[in-house]
Amino acid sequence: MNKMDLINELHQRNLIFHITNKNKLKELIKNKCISLYCGFDPTGESLHVGHLLPLITLKRFQILGHKPIVLIGGATSLIGDPSFKTKERLLQSDNLIDKWTLKISQQVSFFLDFNCNFNSALILNNNSWFKKINVLSFLRDVGKHFSINTMINREAVKQRIKRLDQGISFTEFSYNLLQAYDFFILNQKNQVSLQIGGSDQWGNISSGMHLIHRTSKKEVYGLTLPLLIQSNGIKFGKTESGTVWLDPKKTTPYKFYQFWMNIEDSNVYRFLKLFTFMNIDEVNQREKNKYKNNQIIFDKSLLAKYITRLVHGDENLSAAERITNILFFKNIEDIKESDLEQLKKDGIPAIEVYKIKDLQEALVFSSLAKSRTQAKNMIISNSISINTKKIVNKNHIINNNDKLFDKFTLLSRGKKNHCLIYWKNKI
Description:
Elements: H1 6-12, E1 18-19, H2 22-31, E2 35-40, H3 52-63, E3 67-72, H4 94-108, E4 122-125, H5 127-130, H6 135-141, H7 148-152, H8 155-162, H9 170-173, H10 175-190, E5 192-198, H11 202-216, E6 221-225, E7 238-239, E8 242-243, H12 253-261, H13 268-275, H14 280-288, H15 295-329, H16 337-347, E9 350-353, H17 359-365, H18 372-380, E10 384-386, E11 389-390, E12 408-413, E13 417-423
Parallel strand pairs: 2-3, 2-5, 3-4, 5-6, 9-13
Antiparallel strand pairs: 1-6, 7-8, 10-11, 10-12, 12-13
Helix pairs in contact: 10-11, 12-15, 13-15, 15-16, 17-18
């Protein structure tokens, strides 16, 4: 693929929701390497899977010679973007934002190349220019170019104004101008000609283009990516148990891997186009054969492996696959203590105990059985396993031989119901 194909490639991958002056942008990309940026406000200590799409899109541009800039919103995060939010964000302290900025900058560094000469990626922080600006200068030089009428009529703002329980504060209302100024500064100092973001950022991106045109008559471009919504109406990356984070301390690599393994079948090939660099023709061919020899199961695994490796690396991918083999294929020989620590954190239900009388009590205590009678019947019916080995003795006493690394016992009912017992020593 060469530079002139990139916009078509993004279209074929269904990566474009909005785009300005498509033909001019295609011609620009064809004839020169550009600088582009995407902003990430540090409103938490970690990015989540919803941020993967813009990061991978920046990577697509970089591979073809363009220079990606990640803008960390150290200043704008102190205000909070109101775009399509039902209520105002809780305002955070400067110190906390600084701490989150550092963590997110470290996460971003895994996705882009920061040492490839002329198109090496950059991470910038908008606090570096906002902390120097005078409020009167900002209102005079930036605010005068914006009509309140236009700003109020932006869909994201209108939704909040119409709500009787939650209006919109002036603080949030000003966010649009701040992000517009980001684009203006980056265009002036870093020759940025394209901003990308989620489709909910279209209003903010448009404001930046407007400000640049009004102040310098330059033409710049905007491109937004689709926001991914699951069939249940929940934003992609959120589950019943919470958000799927990129930080392995918040979402273990095993749980991250399983998130991708458990996506709906209807999304497998769409996501292979969105999140991987696999050739589009190959993806389409795989989709045609998806019901042959369970091809779709293999392709789902291919997607899970690719994304887990991208975010967490080969070693953590191997751990996720080991744990999967243990739980679903009963292969426990290669288990590591660190794998069990992952399971204890968020892989499967886990309990901490000092002492349990017998297996029946363990089944009840772990909620795998409702009563000792039910537990006994489960054991007799050959449906209970300890560390993947079937237990048929209804009076089995859990002993040291049942403890992995002297502190873990994997209790299973059937193929899909598990509980990890963590044995604690009394102090």
